[in-house]
Amino acid sequence: MWDIIKSTTPEILWAGIKYTIPIAVISFIIGLVIAVITALIKTSKPRGNAVVKGLWQLLKAIFSFYVWLFRSTPLIVQLFIVFYGLPNVGLQLNAWTAGICTFSLNTGAYASETIRAAISSIPRSQWEAAYSIGMTYQQVLFKIIFPQAFRIAIPPLSNSFIGLVKDTSLASTITIADMFLVSQQIASHNYQPLLMYSIVAAVYAIFCSLLTILQYYMEKRLSRYITAEGE
After folding, report:
1. pTM for this prediction
2. % of the chain at pLDDT higher than 90
3. How many domains does the chain have?
4. Can you say whether the dihedral through the CA atoms of 15, 19, 20, 21 is positive or negative?
5. CA-based nearest residue to 161, from 197, 124, 215, 216
6. Higher-confidence residue: 222 or 101?
7. Is 15 exposed, middle or buried (0-12, 13-18, 19+ CB in 10 A)?
8. What is the CATH classification number for the domain harbouring 105?
9. How many CB atoms neighbour CB 189 within 10 A?
10. What whole-number distance in Å separates Cα of residue 42 and Cα of residue 63?
11. Is the pLDDT of residue 47 over 80?
12. N or C, which terminus of the chain has less Cβ within 10 Å?
């Protein structure tokens, strides 16, 4: 048993470094960008004539539908639609691109609600006070609202990233040779599925534990500033 563990663990770890972690990191970064845009559109109240307000409401409805769609359907179904379904309408994506697109859109939908809630938690009086001293919308957003909302959103966003690392195991269903697929392939040769799946579970646990420790130190560091502001 130990010989199998010593010979197969490096291969599984390499798959994690080569595919699992890059997919998770890239998807999370893109997802955050999508989430911020979505949250801003859903929380903003545009100024202007009836036409501008009507177009903004239409845009808000589109993004609300996007969030509803990706939060209401299983991630594995989304992966299958993008990778196996879209070629039927002439859009052919390789496995890597399909995985990144799907994970990013899924993350963006969930993270947008986290960011929206964080932005909404900032008292409206802070917006009004900033406007009263002549600050523009962009200045208020980037200098006052975002720094506070970021601190509030860190814990749930960190949890989302840890969840995404585990969800990347579904990439194996669209032929990406991540850790889970590699463990399946090895198990089909050595006929030790329990051992191989236990090894890959342990590797996922190690990755997620390291991220949890990082999350703890980030929250601890940010809490120092919150405490200082409250004194």
Report:
1. 0.89
2. 64
3. 1
4. positive
5. 215
6. 101
7. buried
8. 1.10.3720.10
9. 9
10. 8
11. no
12. C
At 47, is the secondary structure helix, strand, or coil? coil
84-121 in b/e form (b: 16+ CB < 10 A) is eeeeeeeeebebbebbbbbbbbbbbbbbbbbbbebbee
Per-residue pLDDT at 230 exceeds 90: no
Taking alpha carbons only, the member of 97, 113, 102 closest to residue 74 is 102
Q: Compute CA distances 100 → 13, 33, 79, 120, 163, whole Å.
A: 20, 14, 10, 29, 15
Query: Is the Cβ–Cβ distance between 97 and 17 less than 8 Å?
Result: no
**Could you tell me what percentage of the chain is helix, strand and coil, using 3-state DSSP and rounding each to the nearest 5?**
90, 0, 10
Question: What's the mean per-residue pLDDT of the chain?
Answer: 90
50 Cα distance to chain centroid:
35
Report whether 219 contacts 155 (CB < 8 A).
yes
The answer to whether the beta carbons of residues 31 and 100 sit under 8 Å apart is: no
Q: What pLDDT is stored for residue 226 in this prediction?
A: 54
Range of the domain at 124: 2-230
* Angle of CA points 179, 184, 190, to nearest 5°: 120
CB 112 within 8 A of CB 41: no
Over residues 170-175, mean pLDDT: 93
